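User: Hi! I'm a student and our assignment asks us to look at how structure tokens line up with a sequence. Could you show me two examples?

Assistant: Happy to help. In each example below, the sequence comes first and the structure tokens follow. Example one:
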Amino acid sequence: MIPVYNEEKDLQPCVLRLHEHLERTFPYAFRITVADNASTDSTPRVAERLAAEIPEVRSFRLEQKGRGRALRAVWSASDAPVLAYMDVDLSTDLNALLPLVAPLISGHSDLAIGSRLSRSSRVVRGAKREFISRSYNLILRGSLQARFSDAQCGFKAIRRDVAQALLPLVEDTGWFFDTEMLVLAERAGLRIHEVPVDWVDDPDSTVHIVKTATDDLKGVWRVGRALATGSLPLDRLARPFGDDPRDRDLTDVPGGLARQLVGFCVVGGLSTLFYLLLYSAFRSFSGAQIANALALLVSAVANTAANRRLTFGVRGRGGAVRHQAQGMVVFGIGLVLTSGSLAALKAASSDPSHSTELAVLIAANLAATVLRFLLFRAWVFPDRRDERTSHVVASHRPASHGPVVPYGPVSQVPDPRGHAPFDQTPFDQTSYDQTPYETTQFRAGEAADRTWGDSTMQLQAVRPHDHDPRNAR
């Protein structure tokens, strides 16, 4: 796809050059769609003429401006298994197009982007644009924890099945569309492939830098706020595409334990500091036991909320009340430990100093913290991946029943290149039809783990239309 606005001069040379490159070097079927964003010059007529002259070119007209709006409209209506776009000025070297889409065609990645900020990229552009681009990506890294290097490079691709789930969640219709799409994809755990590109900036670009930068910063604030409040339904995108080793059941390896420990320690350290400050404040007008109970209560509510979101990754408001109620039980256990420690200190010394009280409370809180983590992990925020594991239905037959031909006689399977069939071995259809079969359910990955022994399975392709009839593979 090529989004355009008032590009009557550059559109035809761009399309002709792109079409010639694809015809000469691209091994897959392709289609070029020119998406006109409410142009007021002769751009629509140029696009229609190109579509009439070149079979692989299509023309699409929108009555409203916005690159994001055009991307959503064209990509949502496309039947191509891989969707890509590039700017009409062809600033990116076209030799990067095949490396861009190859990881998507193979199924290895979900999205792919060109990066002008990679060390191996060769970029020619002015100091002003270079400074703005790097500053913007630094803002994304600092505010939205983005790990991709170049959000605004006009050279991106996405698998259609991913786009169908991701695009409805993207609100922006302008230049921030790319950034929002990438941030949501990354937060959902999708795989983003980066391709170093050679880039020569177009000095005649019609992009308004100041307005674009202002709109982008507004978008960063909106997306950051939505992520902080958990209002985005990212569970729709939580790695539904392809196999992910993090979704496999591994014995003796608790999932996400290292990350949870780090998050819990950070939250615990801040909570302990908050608790001690509260205790010192309450202690100025109440007894030690009352100050301890009040400080622990307030800090426990904050601790449960922070661990829920940051340590165990629970988003949204669902189950928040139940989690806080369970957190109160954990709080009660911590209260018993700390109050017992204060009582023991009081019995040992009739008038302990404030520093001694704090030292005893810190030791008691360390013990309570270890217990709190174990209870949070096992009871309050348990890992429920086992309950969400999808099952696949497969027909199988033990090897003792004889050879299995999955879809009929092998001699009837033609070679897609037009050669002779793969095998002309005679086939007894009667004995095949009478062979007993059984249907069962198994968890994805069991066959790879060899827990099924000798068996033959018949599985339907995940994306049966994602193939090129010209490609024999």
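Example two works the same way, sequence first and then tokens:
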Amino acid sequence: MPRNEDVILATDARDLSEALGCSPDTVENLRGMGVIASQGELWDVGPARDYLRDAAWADSLWH
């Protein structure tokens, strides 16, 4: 499966949370897991968006 690259300019966790549609706490968890990688103030959020999409999909299977 090809890797999803989606690079954005974000200055803090709030910018990232708005771009990803999740809470700042979730952003910190994703950073800790290595799902999002910083390149200075440029952030490759493609893997994080994939992760959040897949997690939401999997969660919907259990409801």
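Here is something you could point out in your write-up. The mean pLDDT is 80.
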